[in-house]
């Protein structure tokens, strides 16, 4: 991946995450278990600059409840307390700052 493509992929994924978190904030709600799990996954992908996997995770996070199979929901094995939108946003901001400073 060229440097330009790399930065474009990072920017685009960051914007998609930020947009999703902004939608949650606009709706004045916290992420459900499904959304939280997938946003945590996409943040982890962004942190290690695995943009393709991150795009898959943010697409899953956005999947409406009616389109989630019972098996998929049951298979979620969260190993963390369900984070709030504010915590997810703070994690995104920290990762972006770390990546910008080369601390990744």
Q: Would you give an account of this structure?
A:
The chain is mostly helical and 104 residues long. It has one domain. It contains 5 helices and no strands.
List keywords for this structure.
single chain; mainly alpha; 104 residues
Count of alpha and pi helical runs:
5
Radius of gyration computed on alpha carbons: 14 Å
Structural class category? mainly alpha
One letter per element, helices H and strands E, the order comes to HHHHH
Helix content: over 70%
What spatial form do the alpha-carbon principal axes imply?
globular
In the residues, how many domains can be counted? Answer: 1
Identify low-pLDDT runs. none
Largest sheet: none
What is the β-strand count? 0
Strand content: under 5%
Overall residue-averaged pLDDT value: 92
Summarize this entry quickly.
This protein has five helices and no strands. It has helices at 3-26, 33-47, 51-61, 70-75, 85-101.
Fold topology:
Layout: H1 3-26, H2 33-47, H3 51-61, H4 70-75, H5 85-101
């Amino acid at each position: 991946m060229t440097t330009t493509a790399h930065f474009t992929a990072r920017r685009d994924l960051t914007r998609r995450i930020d947009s999703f978190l902004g939608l949650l904030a606009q709706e004045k709600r916290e992420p459900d278990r499904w959304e939280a799990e997938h946003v945590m996954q996409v943040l982890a992908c962004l942190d290690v600059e695995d943009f393709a996997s991150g795009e898959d995770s943010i697409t899953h996070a956005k999947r409406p409840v009616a389109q989630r199979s019972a098996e998929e929901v049951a298979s979620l094995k969260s190993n963390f307390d369900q984070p709030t939108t504010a915590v997810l946003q703070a994690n995104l901001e920290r990762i972006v700052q770390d990546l910008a400073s080369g601390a990744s």
